């Protein structure tokens, strides 16, 4: 008889636990607004991480869209790259079209060799306004020195291919003479 009492007691404990869980589930789902807000916040955070929104701090007053697609500050609008390439706004390509990413990530993925980055790319226009970002003669938006894309070309290669001679002006900027 003692065994029947223990079995019955165990059954009631389990049934009671199941009822509590069931009731809690019903009550927890009753306020869908809060639950959706939490889910939305989690999704937004995940999307931002995937898109790199938290990856780099944006320059003051620059939106994520401007950072990705431009326009960049006026000082870059008609600037020349490190190898003397002119920046033609109408011919710029989106970052997504050129596998744009951090140089270290590109090297890990086998897309580039270690050490190749925008900083040593012929197309890069280094920071000219003190915000920590430069631009590119071929790619839209703000560009950091430690980024990379599939258009990467060493400065030495670009200069060897070039047909112009360069010299500095009184401000230290390069002047390119086409021959």
Task: Give the SSE map.
Layout: H1 2-28, H2 32-51, H3 64-69, H4 74-77, E1 101-102, H5 103-108, E2 124-125, E3 135-136, E4 147-148, H6 155-161, E5 165-168, E6 174-177
Antiparallel strand pairs: 1-4, 2-3, 5-6
> How much of the polypeptide forms β-strand, as a percent range?
5-15%
Instruction: Give the count of structural domains.
Output: 2
CATH architect. name of the largest domain:
Irregular
Span of the ends, CA to CA? 108 Å
The CATH homologous superfamily of the largest domain is named: High potential iron-sulphur protein
Widest sheet: strand ordering: 1-4
Q: What does the model show?
A:
The protein has 179 residues and is mainly alpha-helical. The chain folds into two domains: 2-51; 64-177, High-Potential Iron-Sulfur Protein, Chain A (Irregular), CATH 4.10.490.10. Helix content is 39%, strand content 9%. The protein contains six helices and six strands, in the order ααααβαβββαββ. The strands form three sheets. A two-stranded antiparallel sheet has the order 1-4. A two-stranded antiparallel ribbon has the order 2-3. A two-stranded antiparallel ribbon has the order 5-6. Mean pLDDT is 76; it is low at 30-54.
Could you name the key traits of this structure?
179 residues, two-stranded antiparallel ribbon, 6 helices
């Amino acid at each position: 008889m003692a065994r029947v009492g223990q079995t019955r007691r165990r059954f009631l404990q389990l049934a009671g636990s199941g009822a509590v869980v069931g009731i809690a589930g019903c009550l927890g789902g009753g306020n869908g607004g809060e639950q959706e807000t939490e889910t939305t916040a989690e999704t937004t955070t995940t999307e931002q991480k995937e898109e790199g929104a938290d990856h780099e701090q944006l320059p003051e007053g620059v939106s994520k869209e401007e950072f990705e697609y431009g326009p960049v500050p006026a000082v870059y609008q008609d600037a020349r790259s490190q190898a003397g390439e002119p920046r033609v706004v109408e011919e710029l390509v989106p970052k997504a079209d050129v596998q744009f990413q951090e140089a270290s990530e590109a090297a890990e993925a086998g897309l580039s060799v270690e050490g190749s980055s925008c900083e040593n790319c012929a197309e890069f226009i280094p920071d000219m306004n003190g915000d920590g970002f430069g631009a590119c003669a071929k790619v839209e938006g703000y560009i950091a020195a430690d980024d990379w894309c599939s258009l990467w070309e060493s400065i030495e290669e670009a200069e060897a291919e070039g047909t112009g001679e360069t010299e500095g002006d009184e401000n230290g900027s390069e002047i390119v003479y086409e021959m």
